[in-house]
């Protein structure tokens, strides 16, 4: 374990990522950067004081230059949507924040793998890809890795089967046009549709999944959590830290992250999530999954919705 990870943004998500990383064996150095110096110093002090229960780790409240030689940089900076604010207005505000961060961090950490978490994540990943000047394999949007985790959680509870036996994914935008390609939904090596009969033969009463309701559960979970507690940060942090462990592993993994499309499924010049081979060298490429005509149409719908937003923002 010798990875250096920089987290930019010490809000709920960024600080929880730093805290979660401090409890894992993924990083030996963590740098937390935020424009609010007092906040970031307080977060680091709080996190560092709990690290006596693990192997030694360095955690500092830093400036951009402290990110030098980072293996991974995680960008979480941005503001939450305010009442009455349109999605486009929020997007432009967060794009402007990203435009101010990008040259500063890329200058000191040009070889790092970048994980974009700031929302709207697919747009932010696209913008960072366009303005950073970095090779695309170094840029990974957290995309629908959280949505897919929510799906596995929901299916696990419905089927009463461990989450690690559920292989199902959410594709497209991390947002309202995301969808579940049920063609690729499996319980271990058995398709979801086949599993009902198998469970029944074992005396287990398993109702068929209401697919529309499950998609709604995935899409609305974030809003429900925000309504109840004000923000979401535990599950997204766990997802990002899992991505960090993938990027520091000895071999590649397949997951749903957002990256630039180059003709896959007939989609080009937009970032969204499909199955992607990711590992210590960043993104290695897309893994084509068999989908039916309706599912491919849903992916195109998601891409078109994102392109419509991109067309309305200022990248200069």
Structural overview:
With 316 residues, the chain is of the alpha/beta class. It folds into 2 domains: 3-141, Rossmann fold (3-Layer(aba) Sandwich); 145-310, L-2-Hydroxyisocaproate Dehydrogenase, Chain A, domain 2 (Alpha-Beta Complex). It has helices spanning 12-22, 37-48, 87-108, 121-132, 145-159, 192-201, 211-229, 234-247, 293-310; strands spanning 3-8, 27-33, 58-61, 72-75, 113-116, 139-141, 166-167, 186-187, 190-191, 253-262, 268-279, 282-286. The strands form 3 sheets. Strands 3-2-1-4-5-6 form a 6-stranded parallel β-sheet, with helices on both faces. A 3-stranded antiparallel β-sheet has the order 7-8-9. The longest helix has 22 residues, at 87-108. It is globular. The mean pLDDT is 94. Pathway: Fermentation; pyruvate fermentation to lactate; (S)-lactate from pyruvate: step 1/1. Catalyzes the conversion of lactate to pyruvate.
**How many separate structural domains?**
2
Spatial strand order of the main sheet: 3-2-1-4-5-6
Biggest sheet, open or closed, and with what strands and sense? Answer: 6 strands, parallel
CATH superfamily heading of the largest domain: Lactate dehydrogenase/glycoside hydrolase, family 4, C-terminal
**How many DSSP H or I helices?**
9
Head-to-tail CA distance between termini? 40 Å
The mean pLDDT is 94
Oligomer: single chain
CATH architecture descriptor text of the largest domain: Alpha-Beta Complex
Q: What percent of residues adopt helix (DSSP H or I)?
A: 40-55%
Please compute the radius of gyration using only Cα atoms: 20 Å
Q: What would the CATH topology of the largest domain be?
A: L-2-Hydroxyisocaproate Dehydrogenase, Chain A, domain 2
Number of strands: 12
Strand content: 15-25%
What is the CATH C level class of the largest domain, in words? Alpha Beta
Which residues form runs of ≥5 with pLDDT under 50? none
Structural class: alpha/beta
Shape: globular
* String of helices and strands: EHEHEEHEHEHEEEHHHEEEH
Subunit structure: Homotetramer.
Pathway: Fermentation; pyruvate fermentation to lactate; (S)-lactate from pyruvate: step 1/1
Family: Belongs to the LDH/MDH superfamily. LDH family.
GO biological process, one term: lactate metabolic process
């Amino acid at each position: 374990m010798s990875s250096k990870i920089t987290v930019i943004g010490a809000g709920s998500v960024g600080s929880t990522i730093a805290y979660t990383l401090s409890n894992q064996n993924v990083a030996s150095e963590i740098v937390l950067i935020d424009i609010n110096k007092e906040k970031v110093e307080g977060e680091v002090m709080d996190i560092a004081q709990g690290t006596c229960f693990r192997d030694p780790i360095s955690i500092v409240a830093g400036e951009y230059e402290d990110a030098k030689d980072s293996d991974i940089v995680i960008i979480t900076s941005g503001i939450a949507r305010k009442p009455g604010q349109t999605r486009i207005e929020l997007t432009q505000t967060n794009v402007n924040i990203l435009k101010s961060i990008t040259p500063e961090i890329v200058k000191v950490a040009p070889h790092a793998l970048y994980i974009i978490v700031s929302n709207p994540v697919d747009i932010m990943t696209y913008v960072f890809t366009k303005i950073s000047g970095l090779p695309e394999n170094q840029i990974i949007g957290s995309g629908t890795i959280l949505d897919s985790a929510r799906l596995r959680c929901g299916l696990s509870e419905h089927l009463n089967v461990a989450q690690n036996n559920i292989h199902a994914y959410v594709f497209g935008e991390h947002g309202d046009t995301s969808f579940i390609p049920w063609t690729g939904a499996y319980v271990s090596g058995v398709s979801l549709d086949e599993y009902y009969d198998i469970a029944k033969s074992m005396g287990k009463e398993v109702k068929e999944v209401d697919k529309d309701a499950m998609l709604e559960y995935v899409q609305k979970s974030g809003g429900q959590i925000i309504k109840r507690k004000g923000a979401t940060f535990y599950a997204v942090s766990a997802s990002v830290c899992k991505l960090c462990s993938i990027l520091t592993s000895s071999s590649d993994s397949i997951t749903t992250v957002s990256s630039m499309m180059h003709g896959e499924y007939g989609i080009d010049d937009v970032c969204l999530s499909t199955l992607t081979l990711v590992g210590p060298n960043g993104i290695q490429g897309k893994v084509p999954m068999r989908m039916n005509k309706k599912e491919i149409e849903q992916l195109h719908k998601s891409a078109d919705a994102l392109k419509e937003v991109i067309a309305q923002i200022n990248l200069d």
